[in-house]
Amino acid sequence: MHKFYNECAYFTAARYFRKVEQITNKIFEPTGLAPAYAYILLYLEDFPKSCITKIAEDLGYERTSVSRMLNFLQERGLVIFETSGRKKLFHLSSKSLEVLEIANDCLSQLKKLTDKELGDKKVEMTSLLTENYWKLNTHD
Known about the structure:
3-stranded antiparallel sheet, mainly alpha, 3 strands
């Protein structure tokens, strides 16, 4: 019998991700955005005037995906950019403040739910996932 159900890094991570994504999508519904888009706004709240490459590196997305998401957010008036040399630096517009307030509430709800359900193991698990992400990131 195969053991991948409980031992395969791909299968177990994907199964966990699908469940977390389902929960997160539901929690972030009030923003009117998919969670990935809301997380970019939250990132820009922490790191204003960020370039696509830095956002992609820090959030673990492909550069082209971040570019597409930023274009979407810009079309909705939630982010604006300025040019600095050859780089576009993105930051939040005043229109994003209402969405950010909702996104921060959603993030708090997600934290409360995962803290409750995952307990003391959550910090260890997320630390290991982050550490292992960076280890595997060299295999692109």
